[in-house]
Amino acid sequence: MPSPTADQLAGLVRSTLDSAGIHGRDAPGLARALAKTTAQALAMFLTQAEVLPGIPASAPPPANSGSTVGPGSLLPPPAGGPTAAQLENLALADLKGEGIAGANAPDLAKVIAGSLAQAIELFTAQVQVAPGIAISGLVTTAPGSLI
């Protein structure tokens, strides 16, 4: 499944800013910058995401087929997703691209990057791969689901 695009996220971000009372001349640009940075962070996460080895399985001989019988874990950042340092320059570029380039723009970019990186780290820590992935010949042969 591909990650959402900035266009798909823009309306949600605008609504979130509105409900938080963030209005003004730069609010639409801020919403677009947040949507772009979030979309890029999610795309990076999906390209880096990995399941840690060691999912318990049952694949008895002679067929060596069966399924996983326990949950698996996701690899956390930095190997399993982007870090705040990797996202900060993207956030700053997105802010500047929307005309948000004041003295505090780098601080805002740092907060955006840190928030996204923390969200991805929490996701990898809390979500697991569900048991029941098919195994044939001692290797998994089907995709897994997240729980």
Can you describe what's shown?
- The protein is of the alpha+beta class and 147 residues long.
- The chain has one domain (6-140).
- 49% of the residues lie in helices and 10% in strands.
- The protein contains four helices and six strands; from the N terminus they run H-H-E-E-E-H-H-E-E-E.
- The protein has helices at 6-19, 27-48, 84-97, 105-126; strands spanning 57-58, 66-68, 72-73, 128-129, 134-136, 139-140.
- Strand 1 and strand 2 form a beta hairpin.
User: How many β-strands, per DSSP?
Assistant: 6
Arithmetic mean pLDDT: 94
Give me the strand/helix succession.
Answer: HHEEEHHEEE
End-to-end Cα distance: 16 Å
What is the radius of gyration? 20 Å
Uncertain stretches of 5 or more adjacent residues: none
The structural class is alpha+beta
| Percent in helix | 40-55%
**Gross geometry:** elongated
SS strand fraction: 5-15%
Across the major sheet, the strand order is 1-2-5-6
Characteristic terms for this protein:
two-stranded antiparallel sheet; alpha+beta; 6 strands; elongated; 147 residues; four-stranded antiparallel β-sheet; 49% helix; single chain; 10% strand
